[in-house]
Amino acid sequence: MRTPEETAGEPRYVPALGYHFLTPLYDTAIALMTRETTWRKALVKQIAATPRDVVLDVGCGTGTLAVMLKRTSPYTTVYGIDPDPDVLGRAEIKARDNGTLVHFMKGYGADVAERAAPLRVTKVVSSLVLHQVPLEGKREILANMLAALKPGGEIHIADYGLQRSATMRLLFRQIQHLDGCEGTQPNADGIVPVLMEEIGFDNVREDRVIATPTGSISLYSGRRA
Ligand SMILES: C[S@@+](CC[C@H](N)C(=O)[O-])C[C@H]1O[C@@H](n2cnc3c(N)ncnc32)[C@H](O)[C@@H]1O
Questions:
Q1: What tens digit of pLDDT does each residue of 151-160 get?
Q2: Which residues does ligand 1 sit against, CB inside 6 Å?
Q3: What dotted CATH number matches 11-223?
Q4: 7, 52, 174, 215: most buried by Cβ count inside 10 Å?
Q5: Strand locations in 40-162 (E)
């Protein structure tokens, strides 16, 4: 069944858990399937947001990372952008229930540069988005994330990355079953840091690799010169 957005002619996107009807289960599934506390805490530590930072979370989904960032550094300005109104509604409720103010907006990765232009973003972040997007979409999102940043700004990403062992490749098939292979396979082959460099980020690094029951999640960082 087509969503109202698709009916209105907007581009398609893969919903948070692969299918729209599964979205209510998203937070529980991520908690059970990904060692969520471990990698999210590591990502928040890596982002190291300060009160002077303006952080934009691309493909923010139900807002878990954005809310964690705001709770960890209450004076940081935090924005979240996602094309799916359903997850954005859940994100608004999560922020409110946590007593935090996060600015959520509807938009695609391709809209990020334009939407971020007035925001003076110092750190652009994203978690579990790129593996869902085909190769050209990954390029487009990363290029927009670079364009969204002030010079000297940082990018921080957590996503399924290079699956280095047979066990991790086997476990990652669960994600490939949900999200399809077009977007997921290039991630499993290690494309993310390659694309980050190709697009023009400096100091691109894979900072951590965290084994999970659904494959390994890598934390990447880079910088806009
Ligand atoms: C697996 S969820 C991850 C959500 C959240 N970042 C997290 O860590 O839980 C992927 C999210 O990416 C969004 N998404 C899919 N295609 C996108 C695109 N082209 N641009 C921006 N977001 C997209 C989906 O709507 C979904 O909320």
A1: 999 999 999 9
A2: 13-16, 30, 58-61, 64-65, 82-84, 87, 108-109, 127-129, 132-133, 137, 141
A3: 3.40.50.150
A4: 215
A5: 54-58, 77-82, 103-106, 121-127, 149-160
